[in-house]
């Protein structure tokens, strides 16, 4: 169980000023996934980001072909140790992680989380438990989903699973909003206090729409958006980064939900209009830096 999350949730405790975020994720030269999707939006919001790369590929793997190195966990640990050498690792306010393809890499991330929490008990860990999606099933190596469920997620303060991933983490299939909320409660009982569930589809969602649900100690909220005919890589990475940032700065899950989804939906709209495979982060940067008032979160409980 997350020893910090049991005594405090992120919601309700806004952070004054810029947030310092250690973001341990993949990187691509072309396009926007992992840190290449998370760092720029966080910087546009005025936050300080320390990107630590787990891979550096030419492009994301969705193209079917790519080049570049997969960094060894020991090399990633060395980079983090170098940050510690500067005497600043303990000043981080948050750790952000996405795809974890190897338990050894997960151990490096969790070690960094522990070291930062030891120096700054108010620091939080936001984990996007990337493992699969509806229609695709699991797309990570065997054993990784169980590792995320049993080892990583319980140590996180904030998690951002999609609906498919939530069902796996909770060990059940959910088809109604009540079942979704019950599943979130099951997962929250293992450690993380703030949960953002994306791509939620249940019996009461209107045709052509989907929902995003945020749950914290203070309640549960949902935003309903049109379902765009697009599913590019990197959208989840942007969502996790923005939700972490807005939750830390506002202390309000409802506000963080509204701002995050307004920005991400605008990015997806721009991507659809441009007809590109890569998300249009740069073109939509104004909607990231100043999220438009597009969606209103409704309180579920």
UniProtKB/TrEMBL annotation:
Database matches in InterPro entries: PM/HMP-P_kinase-1, PyrdxlKinase, Ribokinase-like
Domain of life from the UniProt record: Bacteria
Single biological process term from Gene Ontology: pyridoxal 5'-phosphate salvage
Signal peptide: none
Pfam families named in the record: Phos_pyr_kin
Main EC class the enzyme belongs to: transferase
GO terms of molecular function: ATP binding; pyridoxal kinase activity
Keyword Hydrolase: no
Domain Pyridoxamine kinase/Phosphomethylpyrimidine kinase: 121-276
Entry GO terms, CC: cytosol
Keyword ATP-binding: yes
PANTHER family: PYRIDOXAL KINASE (PTHR10534:SF2)
NCBIfam families per the UniProt record, alphabetical: PRK05756.1 (NF004398), pyridox_kin (TIGR00687)
Protein name: pyridoxal kinase
UniProt lineage: Bacteria, Bacillati, Actinomycetota, Actinomycetes, Micromonosporales
């Amino acid at each position: 169980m997350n020893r910090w999350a049991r005594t405090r949730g992120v919601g309700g405790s806004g952070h004054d000023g810029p947030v310092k975020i250690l973001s341990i994720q993949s990187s691509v030269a072309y396009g926007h996934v992992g840190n290449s999707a998370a760092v720029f939006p966080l910087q546009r919001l005025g936050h300080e980001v320390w990107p630590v790369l787990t891979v550096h590929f030419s492009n994301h793997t969705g193209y079917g072909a790519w080049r570049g190195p997969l960094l060894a966990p020991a090399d990633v640990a060395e980079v983090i140790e170098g940050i510690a050498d500067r005497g600043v690792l303990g000043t981080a306010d948050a750790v952000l992680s996405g795809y974890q393809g190897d338990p050894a890499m997960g151990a490096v991330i969790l070690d960094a989380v522990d070291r930062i929490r030891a120096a700054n008990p108010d620091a939080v860990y936001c984990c996007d438990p990337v493992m699969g999606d509806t229609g695709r099933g699991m797309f990570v190596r065997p054993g990784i989903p169980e590792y995320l469920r049993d080892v990583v997620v319980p140590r996180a303060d904030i998690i951002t699973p999609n609906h498919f991933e939530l069902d796996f983490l909770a060990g059940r299939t959910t088809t109604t909003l009540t079942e979704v909320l019950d599943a979130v409660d099951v997962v929250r009982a293992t450690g993380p206090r703030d949960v953002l569930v994306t791509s939620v589809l249940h019996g009461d969602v209107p045709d052509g729409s989907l929902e995003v649900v945020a749950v914290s100690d203070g309640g549960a909220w949902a935003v309903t958006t049109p379902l765009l005919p697009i599913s590019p890589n990197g959208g989840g990475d942007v969502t996790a980064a923005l939700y972490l940032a807005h939750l830390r700065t506002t202390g309000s899950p409802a506000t963080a939900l509204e701002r995050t989804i307004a920005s991400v939906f605008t990015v997806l709209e721009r991507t659809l209009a441009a007809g590109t495979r890569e998300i249009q982060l740069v073109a939509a940067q104004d909607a990231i830096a100043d999220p438009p008032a597009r969606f209103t979160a409704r309180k579920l409980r």
